[in-house]
Design brief:
Layout (H helix, E strand, L loop, with lengths): L1 H9 L3 E3 L11 E3 L1 H20 L4 E4 L8 H6 L1 H4 L1 E6 L6 E3 L28 E4 L3 E3 L9 E3 L5 H5 L2 H7 L6 E10 L14 E11 L4 H18 L7 E5 L11 E9 L2 E12 L1 H10 L5 E2 L6 E2 L2 E8 H12 E6 L2 E6 L10 E5 L6 H12 L5 E3 L5 H11 L3 E5 L1 H6 L1 E6 L5 E5 H13 L11
Parallel strand pairs: 3-9, 19-20, 19-21
Antiparallel strand pairs: 1-2, 4-5, 4-6, 7-8, 9-10, 10-16, 11-12, 12-13, 13-16, 14-15, 17-18, 21-22, 22-23
The chain binds glycyl-adenosine-5'-phosphate.
Length: 447
């Protein structure tokens, strides 16, 4: 993880937030390449949810919602972690994580292991951030930063039935920021207090819920492997009955083998009719589907694949990170799926003279209309390739003296390092063809 964190900082993917003031516990800023990477992760999620299906529609709900939402959803009463404070070292621990926590005075010990430890009883701590709506801070003005995007979908269910001309089974998908005052954030962007979720609520006839649960487990596993995550680093883990959330009758986590061990990447839950029933009760509105032809009416059950954009981006980075040797020199390379790579092609004149920069700059202007492209003319060609390898650029296009004679360029592949000459006239089509091609991680073959 240290290597990933340092690469992310060095190459402008992710920085600690407000770093010049010493940072703010577990909050991060995405730099240029991080923005492009996360954008690509989200675009692939939208592609899988919207473009490649016709049963899902999109939503972008507000972060601030009516406070009754969180009463109905159970978050106000139940979205808590049990906390234990140490009066001696002033640290705070999750009661259910004491075995993994380190004592503030003797980090090699767990809290409570040494006589100096003075621990409180566990107390429930709500993870929702509060703020005030309007200028007056009174009880009626308290609102919460949403801890999940899902509730924005449930409270819009009625709107969607009216306008979208969909009937169960159908889904509503949303990407957006969520906030949790996590007690033990950490491991870089794995667990932060502000993060982006990619959630889809799939509304189904009650008796079809088990079938659609299996469907979404399979779909979501395929999404990760098609985007290059190594299948042997990915697994499904069904929640034990005592792990299930209050709303769920079945949940399986998609887990990835992060450097910190197997950890949740995404949860797929069968939420039953809990949310719609709760919101119907608290709002006094009918939240049910009525079949106009048969008159049949029911409260749909919900299957929810809930992923994190930051956590997914981290998994793709971890899976892509590699070190090898090129021409006797160590190289760090991100073997990202080309569709996820922040930059698809770098255009590089071999030397900064003889008309090569002009031809390369012109080529760059043509390519960037069709894909994310960079132009770089500064420094030795080897150094420029290595910089692109570190940000995961799958193709390097070099303009050299031969280009000026026959209008061909060399295309260098990041993974195989194979270089081929391609006519400029065919270059954009050829690159697009390669970007669309099936791809699997060269790390699988032990490259
Ligand atoms: N609506 C269900 C729900 O929110 P969750 O398992 O709590 O379920 C879904 O969250 C996903 O959101 C997680 O699998 C993870 O990818 C992401 N996530 C949750 N908390 C996070 C945090 N503190 N930091 C980063 N990502 C987080």
């Amino acid at each position: 993880m240290d290597k990933i964190v340092s690469l992310c900082k060095r190459r402008g993917f992710v920085f600690p937030s407000s770093e010049i003031y010493g940072g703010l516990g577990s909050t991060y800023d995405y730099g240029h390449y991080g923005v492009l990477l996360k954008q690509n992760v989200k675009a692939e999620w939208w592609r899988a949810m919207l473009q490649e299906r016709d049963d899902i529609v999109a939503l972008d709900a507000a972060i601030l919602m009516h406070p009754r939402t969180w009463e109905a959803s159970g978050h106000l009463a139940g979205f808590t972690d049990p906390l234990i404070d140490c009066r001696t070292c002033k640290l705070r621990f999750r009661a259910d994580h004491m075995e993994q926590s380190a004592c503030g005075r003797k980090p090699s010990k767990h809290p409570g292991d040494i006589p100096d430890c003075d621990l409180t009883d566990p107390r429930d701590f709500n993870l929702m951030f509060q703020t005030t709506l309007g200028p007056v801070k009174d009880a009626g003005a308290t609102v919460y930063l949403r801890p999940e995007t899902a509730q924005g979908i449930f409270v819009n269910f009625k709107n969607y039935l009216q306008f979208s001309r969909k009937k169960p089974p159908f889904g509503i998908a949303q990407i957006g920021k969520s906030f949790r005052n996590e007690i033990t954030p950490g491991n870089f962007v794995f667990r932060t207090r502000e993060f982006e979720q990619m959630e889809m609520e799939y509304f189904v006839p009650p008796d079809e819920a088990p079938k659609w649960f299996e469907h979404w487990l399979e779909q979501r596993m395929n999404w990760y492997t098609e985007l290059g995550l190594r299948p042997d680093h990915l697994r499904l883990r069904a929640h034990a009955p005592d792990e299930l959330s209050h709303y769920s009758s079945a949940t399986s986590d998609v887990e990835y083998l992060f450097p910190i061990g197997w950890s949740e990447l995404e949860g797929v839950a069968n939420r039953g009719n809990f949310d719609l029933t709760q919101h119907a009760e608290f709002s006094g509105q009918k939240l049910e589907y009525v079949d106009t032809a048969s008159g049949e009416r029911y409260v749909p059950h919900v299957i929810e694949p809930a992923a994190g954009a930051d956590r997914a981006a981290l998994a793709f980075l971890v899976d892509a990170y590699d070190e090898d040797e090129v021409g006797g020199e160590a190289r760090t390379v991100l073997r990202l799926h080309p569709r996820l790579a922040p930059v698809k092609v770098a255009v590089l004149p071999l030397v900064k003279k003889d008309g090569q920069p002009e031809v390369a700059a012109e080529l760059h202007r043509e390519l960037r209309v069709r894909m994310s492209a960079e132009y770089d003319e500064g420094g030795a060609i080897g150094r420029r390739y290595r910089r692109q390898d570190e940000i995961g650029t799958p193709f390097g296009v070099t303009v050299d003296h031969q280009t000026l004679e026959d209008r061909t360029v060399t295309v260098r592949e990041r993974d195989s390092l194979v270089q081929e000459r391609v006519p400029i006239a065919e270059l954009a089509d050829e690159l697009e063809r390669r970007l669309r091609a099936l791809w699997s991680s060269p790390k699988l073959a032990g490259v």
